[in-house]
């Protein structure tokens, strides 16, 4: 059928109600957001953001309400979609932005694709990877993997992807979203090593919309975390308190979930797998820890400093 492209949509959207179908690949996926309030009578108050791209550039796509439980889990990073009968809206100015793996890619930030059950009822089709043709020009998913030895040189809030062998995972803890609020964030700490440094990655992993992965992180699993942000305490000794935290677009994968993921072709991921083949499992098992309270960043050694 007659397809259109994201740049064409951006140029012509103001004068149109109906658009030709779009063929796009998902490059980033946000966590699922629940925006229900007691006074609002919405059946399924859910929303999820995706960043999708074709040969002309990248644009945000929003999945609304009852389409979320139906489609969210099927729409993975790397999935190719055919979209029909979608709406175009001015983009929401305060949403988070992932850092693209391809810095040359054009971004369309003024508008977003809106997928709804009605007005108009969107038709979504997932194109199997084996049917995707090179002539469609869809971009590949690109990553920004770093090794542990590279981490100490990265600035605060830098975005990166990591892979490592889990040596420690803490219990799930809760933090209030706001003071005196009834809502909590759920998170846990983990350490992962990749053989490039004596130090592990220290990872603050907030519960994403992957509960089955979040609850099953355990020592000796291969852990991949994407779209992580560097956090360093610039006031004290900067190198001692550097860690990585999840962002709104982070995805987490553990052993058993890696098959078919786009990052398996990445060079640094292949190097890590080679390194794990040189390790003896029993040696690493002896160094692993699970559970317990993990105060981080560490409080000072004496009360005067505290």
From TrEMBL:
<dbReference type="InterPro" id="IPR012340">
    <property type="entry name" value="NA-bd_OB-fold"/>
</dbReference>
<dbReference type="InterPro" id="IPR040893">
    <property type="entry name" value="RADX"/>
</dbReference>
<dbReference type="Pfam" id="PF17659">
    <property type="entry name" value="RADX"/>
</dbReference>
<dbReference type="GO" id="GO:0003697">
    <property type="term" value="F:single-stranded DNA binding"/>
</dbReference>
<protein>
    <submittedName>
        <fullName>RADX protein</fullName>
    </submittedName>
</protein>
